[in-house]
Amino acid sequence: MCDLNPTDALCVSLESHLVDSLRPLQAVVPKDIADTLSPYTASSPPPTIPYSVLRAVSQWAQSTGLEILRSNSPPLDPHVYTMIALLAGTTTSPQRNFGTYEPPQDPEEIEAAKSAERRSITALLNALLSVLGSGFAVWWAADKLRWKNEWRVLLALFSAIVVAVAEAVLYLIWQSRRSQSKAKRTKPRHRTRRVQSKRDDELSGSEASSGGEKAVIISTSVKEVTDAGLRRRQ
Prior knowledge:
Strand order of the largest sheet: 1-2
Oligomer: single chain
Number of helices: 7
Helix content: 55-70%
Number of strands: 2
Structural class: mainly alpha
Order of helices and strands: EHHEHHHHH
Radius of gyration: 40 Å
């Protein structure tokens, strides 16, 4: 069922120990359950078994089949056929391809990403205003110098292109420096943890050594008191 319609039923992997547990049931379970179990207890069983089949076996073993299992020769343990025991060591839906789990980001990381987005938008708006402003300023200056319209247009375009290239280079440099700063921020965290662990080890070692010194001092003080008592008695 799982191999033919992998999306229609919930399946688990059919492990070897599960097959060994289900084979003795073939002769004692009702006929409908025995017919359902027969493909999964054969010499070459499929790789998966439906969850509904195991649930039917467990329900029968914990109700009407309880005495049948105990009176069987040799007797079968009903606890082996609980759902917890049947599902132990199996994999749920091994035929399905689940997506990789991506843990949610920390609130600090989300806030840092939002701040970086705002800075990027601000930088792009500043670059656009700089390009438009430089082009208009050159056009206005050329107009005051009474240049021809074609020269004024060419000079304004040239100045706007130069400013746009300069803004693009500055933006790329800013982005590279920001990525480097992110990398530097992540490294000291590991170093801090290692240093903290070393400090904890040193503190635990110092506490252990101080504890040993206290024990020695106490033992020597007890010895001195004992010697003083013996001297008084003598």
